[in-house]
Amino acid sequence: IAFSAAISACEKGGQWAKALQLLSEMADSKVESNVITFNAAISAFAKCSQWAKALHLLGVLSYSNMLSNTITFSTAISACSKGNEWEKALLLFSIMTQVKVQPNVVSFGAAIGACGKGGDWKKAWQLYGMLTQGKLESGATIFNAAISACEKCGYWETVLKLIDSMGGEKVEATPTTSNATISACENNGKW
Q: I need a labelling partner for 85 at 20 to 30 A (CA). Which of 54, 100, 109, 123 fits?
């Protein structure tokens, strides 16, 4: 329990190197780790854009026959997205659904955000559709990720559709929403 608590503290402080060291010490001390411990370490890597290390731990987790869960995949997707490895983030999202791990709003948000970084507005729109079909509640974070993806690709009409959807779902716009919407319209001479 002490190792897991220390790794969680490393996660909160973004101390990925210390988290890795503690995982190693756990193994050396023959202390059994679990998916929660691995999730905390992967999260520490994600906060510091250490996507390769996050993917390595995801592989170790799979190799050790521990079952990855929604948190594991969501955090690894986020690590790839933050590290500008958007294609890897989308591949992880695909693998997640193939191995029957149910994506949540965080998973979708990280994947949609990755689409924005990769300039793939169509995939962002597709993921948004999957989210709404799955009856998951999308908040401002999801809308902002989708709006940003469409804005970066110049699809102002899709941005406006998303803004309409926000109103229909009673999701309040944030400054990020407004800035991305204005930027999309301005960049396309539609203001």
A: 100
